[in-house]
Amino acid sequence: MIKPAMLKKGDKIAIVSLSSGMLGETFCAHEVRLGTMRMREFGLEPVFMENSLKGMNYIRNHPEKRAADLKAAFLDSSISGIICAIGGDDTYRTIPYLMEDEEFISAVKNDPKFFLGFSDTTVNHLMFHKLGLRTFYGQAFICDLAELADDMLPYTKNAFSAFRQKDRFKRCLVY
């Protein structure tokens, strides 16, 4: 298995909407701000990919754009990791655009990235497993980093606190 480098302070993290486009809806604007603030508190710099904030209808109707965002994140050498916005029910439609794209496959194998997500993103985890990349099944941007409360969920905060204290995801997000 290909092990991506662990994240460190200052790393840029791509936020992708591979399934649901709710991150781009106005009712989620406060979560975008909150999640961005929390990521920065942990020393990470979120980078919202080109189509990630285009809303539910656009994301649903354009699996090729969702795939393009994931591919762009892998092709961008300044990006160290990728966190999914949320799960959903439609990620499988991105697979042909990715698994039939030699440039994407080569980027995954030659410039592996930290990948984190859950739910419908399981399809992507299986895709990456087939390509030999080790991934992390866990937190998503909206549900965990942007949790609407005074503080993050305890599990999420513990994982990201371990990162901040040691400059690495080790205690909770382990290989």
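(ticket continues) Second input and output from the same batch:
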Amino acid sequence: MAILNKEEAKAILQKIISLSKAESVEANLGGYQGGNIRYARNTVTTAGVETNTSLSVTSNFGKKSGSASINELDDAALERVVRRSEELAQFSPENPEFMPPMEAQEFKDSITFKQSTANITPEDRTKIAESSIGPAKASGVIAAGFQEDYNGFDAMMNSKGLFAYNRGTSTDFTVTMRTEDGTGSGYAIHDYNDINNLDTAAASKRAIKKAVDSKNAKAIEPGKYTVILEPAASVGLIRNMMWNLGARRADEGRSFMSKKGGGTKLGEQIIDERVNIYQDPFNEANPSRTWTGSGLPVRKTDWIKGGAVENLRYGRFWAQEKEVEPVPFSGRFIMDGANATTEEMIKDTKRGILVTRLWYIRSVDPQTLLYTGLTRDGTFYIENGEIKYPVKNFRFNESPVIMLNNLETLGKQYRIDGNMVPVMKIRDFTFSSLSDAV
């Protein structure tokens, strides 16, 4: 019973609403079928399939709320979870920022579901692992990878008449290749809604080449360098910037979007004018659900346009406080790219560093969005348009705002971690020290 269609989900949620004795009630129902295969040291280690269905109910009495969850859907279980949520609400303190359930909304059907992904079999997952392990063995490197797929639904209903339903699929693949002596490492990552777009053999081939080419890296002095950032290197910094485009923190002076003396930078150009970042639930390469967990419709929204901040994220409470319409963030972003390839950027670089991946990113200063972290899995020195040799990894200290102000070249877009990010060439990227990580 893990996957329910729209009418089946609606019937269960209507039962919840009819059972409620609260002043208002909201219920969320979801289920999925998920599969995965994992391999390490060129051998499959685990594989499996998981299914689950879960229901959560939130009951409200005035500004007091209580929530309870269950994964049984018979009539007795439904009554039990409703009564439990009501009981918890009575013992809860009032929430001064309580927002009542929303009135009914109109939601367009999303394009997140692909039958090809829903049809995946254990044999398909085995072929995915084979397409990575085989080339690794042939190249004398050691593969460790993970592929998982998701086929599920989400639905919500409240006592004000709001109902939303979404069906979606996805697949994710990551692989790390290591040379047998442990001195070289390569990495690849991909995710799609449609598994037909997933080419694990090609991804593994790139990771193998990175691993072989990064053996016996040389140490060079840290400092400011021109860098070519592959999407796995830049996505974390840009994602952190996007999640910090919240109106409330900016209004309260707690954000990089806050202006000294009060006010926000909304409408101001803060990064290179070539940068455009937006969300679009109907983007074919990167679709998303058309509603948020609070019941707000998700629409195409420009966040940064021509380098200027076009919108800030407003939740329902803060929008009410400021007497504006809520502006929700879908959690996914699309950054426009251009036509330049990584190879073309390398040829156009006199002296710089190619970075495959950044990881262990941590905040240093929220007011300037300064972050620190490490390079990993293939870092290379570029000189006179050619990769000369692999270099030891660095710790970096950099802000995505400064980074996007130092943009030299935009390249092709790739989907990564549910976002669309281009390859980028950046000047004066700050490496603060060396790292012994491979």
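Agent notes: The mean pLDDT is 97. The chain is about 25% helix and 40% strand. Closing as not reproducible unless the customer responds.
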